[in-house]
């Protein structure tokens, strides 16, 4: 049976997202003269499709469908993102000079959201075949081992950061790649080298784009007084920027959070959603929840996310297949980094990256893609071990060793690779 707790926790978040799409869009409905139920009905349709899609995927056999679906999402996403700049305006939506959405039957589909799930599967599948424990490898040897993945990630950066002008998604994928490499068997020293390299690339992408520099300066104008309070004045005076324009959205986001207090203003009682936070139902959905449901509401939502991640990581840890282990872990990392980056952004701790909150932010592509990822993990969860009796579950080593294959547990059919499992035991 698929993991019911994971399914119910995801459904709970989707339900909260539908409620937010109604209560947080009051101003947008009036501004654009939409029907009062315009957003909530569209989100409800997507929510029902996402839940059905998630449960349908959970019923499939992972030995057959996990690989097919994962690689289809990866290569299909690459093809669509390469083709989008050349498609006519009637088929794609353009925002800020970047074509990010394909128009289908009155809805807009963002290929990058589905590509992220496929990218995680591709990494999990490839890492399980090519990588193992680092043993006594040096950093340079590890770099040579992962060089092909670096080349693939350069392509990903080109597709997303340059063609679609979406640096936030690149940051999420870069962090996910680095952590998956670590859990696949890379050394901590190599992991830290990779993080520093990614930080350098991130800085390069910022300084080569004027609008990104302005966004950083705008954020710093709002955050500098708080951050520089921890520095000696001799250093702070050189870092302080005078007469810088403060971030409009972050200021109103903080006011909305403050206005919510402990218990919130109540469902529909928020005021900062009325034109002050223009993207409150998408990028600033957590600020909207904080105002209307208060600290209690944010705490409940955060706990649901934590429990959902706990289920994902538990399924990963109990899987006896390296690809399934790394994929389940990767889906959890995608959700974790998206939630953290958004939460830090709306609270002014980091610049806003335009990353939506999984399942909560308005938008069909993100919800469906996240549901596909969860559905694939639910597919995996049917074949995990809950309790292992070492006297009854002893794999036969000779037959597999003779064929150069990893042992397969007779009850699950999943390959048991020692590299990851040894690390998990440690």
Distance between the termini: 29 Å
Per DSSP, the total helix count is 16
Order of helices and strands: HHHHEEEHHHHHHHHHHHH
Strand-pairing-aware structural class:
mainly alpha
Q: Stretches where pLDDT falls below 50 for ≥5 residues?
A: 387-426
Q: Mind summarizing the main beta sheet? A: 3 strands, antiparallel
Radius of gyration, whole Å:
23 Å
Percent in helix: 55-70%
- Beta-strand portion reads under 5%
Strands, total number: 3
What general outline do the C-alpha atoms trace?
globular
Mean pLDDT: 82
Please list the strands of the largest sheet in the order they lie side by side: 1-2-3
Concise description?
This protein is mainly alpha-helical and 426 residues long. It has helices spanning 4-23, 26-31, 38-58, 62-83, 111-130, 139-162, 167-183, 188-207, 210-228, 233-239, 248-260, 285-318, 322-346, 364-381, 397-403, 418-425, and strands at residues 92-95, 98-104, 107-109.
């Amino acid at each position: 049976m698929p993991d019911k707790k994971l399914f119910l926790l995801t459904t709970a978040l989707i339900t909260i997202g539908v409620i937010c799409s109604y209560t947080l869009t009051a101003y947008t409905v009036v501004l654009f003269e939409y029907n009062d139920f315009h957003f909530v009905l569209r989100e409800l349709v997507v929510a029902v499709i996402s839940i059905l899609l998630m449960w349908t995927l959970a019923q499939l056999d992972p030995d057959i469908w996990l690989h097919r679906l994962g690689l289809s999402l990866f290569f299909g996403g690459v093809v669509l993102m390469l083709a989008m700049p050349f498609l006519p305006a009637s088929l794609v939506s353009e925002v800020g000079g970047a074509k990010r959405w394909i128009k289908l039957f009155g809805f807009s589909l963002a290929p990058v959201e589905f590509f992220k799930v496929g990218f995680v599967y591709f990494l999990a599948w490839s890492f399980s075949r090519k990588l193992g424990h680092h043993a006594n490898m040096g950093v340079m040897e590890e770099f040579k081992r992962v060089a092909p993945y670096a080349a693939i990630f350069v392509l990903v950066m080109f597709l997303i950061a340059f063609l679609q002008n979406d640096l936030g998604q690149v940051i999420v994928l870069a962090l996910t790649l680095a952590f998956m490499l670590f859990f696949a068997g890379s050394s901590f020293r190599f992991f830290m080298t990779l993080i520093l390299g990614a930080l350098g690339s991130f800085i390069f992408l910022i300084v080569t784009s004027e609008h990104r520099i302005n966004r950083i300066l705008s954020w710093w104008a709002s955050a500098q007084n708080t951050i520089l309070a921890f520095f000696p004045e001799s250093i702070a005076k050189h870092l302080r920027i005078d007469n810088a324009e403060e971030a409009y959205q972050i200021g109103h986001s903080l006011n909305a959070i403050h206005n919510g207090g402990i218990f919130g203003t109540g469902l529909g009682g928020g005021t900062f959603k009325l034109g002050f936070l223009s993207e409150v139902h998408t990028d600033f959905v957590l600020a909207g929840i904080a105002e209307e449901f208060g600290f209690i509401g944010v705490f409940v939502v955060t706990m649901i996310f934590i429990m959902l991640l706990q289920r994902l990581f538990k399924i990963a840890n109990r899987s006896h297949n390296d690809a399934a282990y790394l994929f389940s872990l990767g889906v959890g990392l995608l959700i974790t980094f998206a939630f953290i980056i958004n939460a830090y952004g709306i609270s002014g701790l980091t610049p806003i990256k335009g990353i939506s909150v999984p399942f909560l932010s308005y938008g069909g592509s993100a919800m469906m893609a996240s549901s596909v990822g969860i559905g694939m993990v639910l597919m995996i969860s049917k074949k995990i071990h809950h309790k292992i009796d070492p006297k009854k579950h002893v794999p036969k080593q000779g037959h597999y060793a003779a064929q150069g294959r990893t042992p397969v547990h007779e009850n699950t059919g999943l390959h048991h690779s020692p590299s990851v499992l040894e690390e998990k035991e440690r």
